[in-house]
Amino acid sequence: MAAVWAGVFPLLAAPEPHRVWGAIAGVGYLCAACAALWSRGRSVSVWVAVGGAVVVPLLVLLVTGGAQSEVGVIERSGVLTLHQATPYLADPRTVVEVTPYLPGTAVFGLPRAVLGDSGWLPQLLGDARLWCTAAFLGCLWGARRATRRAVGGGVPLGALVASPVVALPLCVSGVDLPLTGLLCLALACAARRRPLAAGLALAAACSLKWTAWPDVAVAVSLLAHRAGLRAAVRAAAVAVAGTVVIVLPSALLSPGPLVQQVFAFPMGLSDWETPAASPLPGRLLADLGPAGWYATVALLLAGGSAVAVSLVVRPPHDLVSAADRLALGLCLAFLLAPAGRFGYLALPVLLVMWARMVRGVPRAVPVRSRLVRTSEDPRPVPVGGAR
Description:
Layout: H1 2-8, H2 16-38, H3 43-64, H4 69-84, H5 110-115, H6 120-125, H7 128-146, H8 154-162, H9 164-172, H10 177-191, H11 195-206, H12 215-227, H13 229-253, H14 255-264, H15 281-286, H16 290-313, H17 319-336, H18 346-359, E1 371-373, E2 380-382
Antiparallel strand pairs: 1-2
Helix pairs in contact: 1-2, 2-3, 3-8, 3-9, 7-10, 10-11, 10-12, 10-18, 11-12, 11-13, 12-13, 12-17, 13-14, 16-17, 17-18
């Protein structure tokens, strides 16, 4: 299935980086399928898929300079932040000069600002995709630690990274991976009753994109259910305070450009036309005119309100239910937004896959007594017996 998915891209009028990834990854997935048939374990197949769908196409795109425009936007944000303490141009002349991200995203462009682009090694190491990927993998590792799962089990993690929902954005842009990883980390910390860690992860996520702000409600609701109202309020306070600390300098230095580029531009209210124009319901409705735009915004608010009510009526009780609720909210947001891309839906799919992967790979615990603790329930239970 993955090979078919990847093989479609070279046949479509997709951007060049997508076609390059599809041509290479399709072969990689086929080789992984053959390895699964010929080898006794699945580890060989997984790592063949990682090599063919991630490592090889990423190296090809890095060497040839192939990337989505988001990579250049992030790297320019880092350069601007280093020189003027804000990632926003005062008067963008084209859509390419618009920075539709919050100031935290500029962190992944700082290596380019420091290393420059003279010479193949600085050009390679300064690519924002490498740092976005490193942040993503680091967050997944931290989430596995937080949920007390086996951090040494590389096969499930490799299968997740090799899947098209991760491999494609990792190779062509990488911009949404840090956000996804931080959301996973926040949910994992909330499930383990760690309000400070959950709040810090939420603050980092909310400083990257404002679309992460509603996600705070899901993590806080999970934390309230598992650790009480006081812990939930503490996490929310840390998330809000951390976001303000990161965003406030740019908001004070360039309030107008920040509002226009970060909020008005994605909603279709600026002078620049957003390239996020997949034929999703919200986009099609907004194209009908002002009435259609207001209708899609109303539907978007209604969907968000419904998810918020569900958090009160039936709050998530564990990691999987929280990830599912967050994925549902994100799907509604991406489908009903006035501007969006099909690729945005990879984020909720990844959340659902990750939560089940973590739940399904428990860490082996040496039996030193007649009592052990499970990862989802800290209460001791008899070994080999019923609760």
